[in-house]
């Protein structure tokens, strides 16, 4: 365990300090700020619920429920249970801190968990054309290390947690869909690209 923690710290310092560059500083601070994602996500949800027919409404509901469960579980259960102190609190002035310190606990990263959960749901409902969501989720996750508020293990485990829980939520959706179809209830059925 000590070796893994040591490797994690080395990875943190490599990303946070060695890769540091003034241009990257501005880019990563922008990417990591969740306020910058509120409007695009709001517009996406309006499009899903208002203009993408049955598929959009179902995808929107699944997406919202998934993010609520992923975010709440990570923040309210996993973080206080593990109790790992953020590098921004634990390492003091020895790091390149580009944003506020954040909450006390760092494991797992909510940003990483939420962004990968988002990517899974979008990919599931909208297919291979939306594969770009995974590199974007990875970039958001890495930005958390770069700006000094998470260790690499926080974002790796956060990404795996969000990815896995999102697929679990989609599995529940598939079970519901199959049961409803067996009962001849058509509200769960849509064709790809359908707008009705």
Give your account of this protein's structure.
There is one protein chain. By secondary structure, the chain is mainly alpha-helical. It has eight helices and no strands. Helix 4 packs antiparallel against helix 6, helix 6 packs parallel to helix 8 and helix 7 packs antiparallel against helix 8.
Oligomer state of the chains in this structure: single chain
What's the CATH C level?
Mainly Alpha
From the spread of the alpha carbons, the general shape counts as elongated
CATH architecture descriptor name: Up-down Bundle
The span between the termini is 54 Å
CATH topology: Vanadium-containing Chloroperoxidase, domain 1
Helicity range: over 70%
Biggest sheet descriptor: none
Number of distinct helices: 8
Q: How many individual domains?
A: 1
Proportion of strand residues? under 5%
Stretches with pLDDT under 50, minimum 5 residues: none
- Helix/sheet category: mainly alpha
Radius of gyration of CA atoms, rounded to a whole number: 19 Å
Output the CATH homologous superfamily: Phosphatidic acid phosphatase type 2/haloperoxidase
């Amino acid at each position: 365990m000590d070796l893994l923690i040591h490797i994690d710290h080395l990875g943190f310092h490599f990303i946070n300090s060695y890769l540091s560059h003034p241009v990257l500083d501005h880019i990563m601070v922008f990417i990591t700020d969740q306020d910058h994602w509120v409007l695009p996500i709001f517009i996406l949800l309006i499009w899903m619920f208002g203009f993408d027919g049955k598929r959009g409404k179902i995808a929107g509901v699944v997406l919202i429920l998934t993010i609520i469960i992923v975010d709440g579980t990570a923040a309210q259960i996993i973080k206080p249970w593990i109790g790992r102190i953020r590098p921004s609190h634990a390492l003091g002035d020895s790091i390149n801190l580009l944003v506020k310190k954040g909450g006390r606990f760092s494991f797992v990263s909510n940003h990483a968990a939420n962004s990968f959960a988002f990517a899974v749901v979008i990919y599931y409902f909208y297919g291979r054309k939306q594969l770009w969501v995974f590199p974007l989720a990875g970039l958001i996750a890495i930005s958390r290390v770069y700006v000094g508020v998470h260790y690499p293990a926080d974002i790796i485990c956060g990404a795996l947690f969000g990815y896995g829980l999102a697929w679990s939520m989609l599995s529940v959706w598939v079970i519901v869909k199959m049961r409803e179809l067996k009962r001849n209830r058509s509200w769960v059925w849509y064709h790809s690209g359908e707008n009705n």
